[in-house]
């Protein structure tokens, strides 16, 4: 099953463009710095993948 993501907020903080990206139908939200929506979604996907791998490693120990 592939996760779907959606941008729920875009804002500027200390001169940096930031996005809040949520995994659809969940309360899981990633806060990322990016130049545009596509980059924000890609960063959130990478973060989710890293989290998934970390959980797999923790469950093996």
Can you walk me through this structure?
The protein is an alpha+beta fold and 61 residues long. It has one domain (5-60). It has 1 helix and 3 strands, in the order βββα. It has one helix at residues 37-60, and strands spanning 5-13, 16-23, 29-33. A hairpin with a 5-residue loop joins β2 and β3. The radius of gyration is 13 Å and the shape is elongated. 7% of the residues are buried. The model has no long low-confidence stretch (mean pLDDT 91).
Present the secondary structure layout.
Blueprint: E1 5-13, E2 16-23, E3 29-33, H1 37-60
Antiparallel strand pairs: 1-2, 2-3
Features:
61 residues; alpha+beta; 3-stranded antiparallel beta sheet; 1 helix; 3 strands; 36% strand
Beta-strand content: 35-45%
What's the average pLDDT? Answer: 91
Largest sheet: 3 strands, antiparallel
- State the helicity in percent bands: 25-40%
* Radius of gyration, CA atoms, in whole angstroms: 13 Å
Number of strands: 3
Walk across the major sheet and give the strand order: 1-2-3
Count of separate DSSP helical elements: 1
Note the overall shape: elongated
Distance between the terminal alpha carbons, to the nearest Å? 25 Å
Which blocks of ≥5 consecutive residues have pLDDT under 50?
Answer: none
Label the structural class: alpha+beta
Number of individual domains:
1
């Amino acid at each position: 099953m592939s996760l779907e993501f959606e941008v729920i907020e875009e804002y500027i903080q200390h001169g940096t463009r930031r996005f809040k990206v949520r995994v659809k139908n969940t309360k899981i939200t990633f806060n990322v710095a990016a130049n545009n929506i596509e980059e924000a979604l890609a960063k959130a996907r990478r973060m989710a993948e890293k989290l998934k791998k970390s959980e797999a490693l923790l469950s093996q120990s």
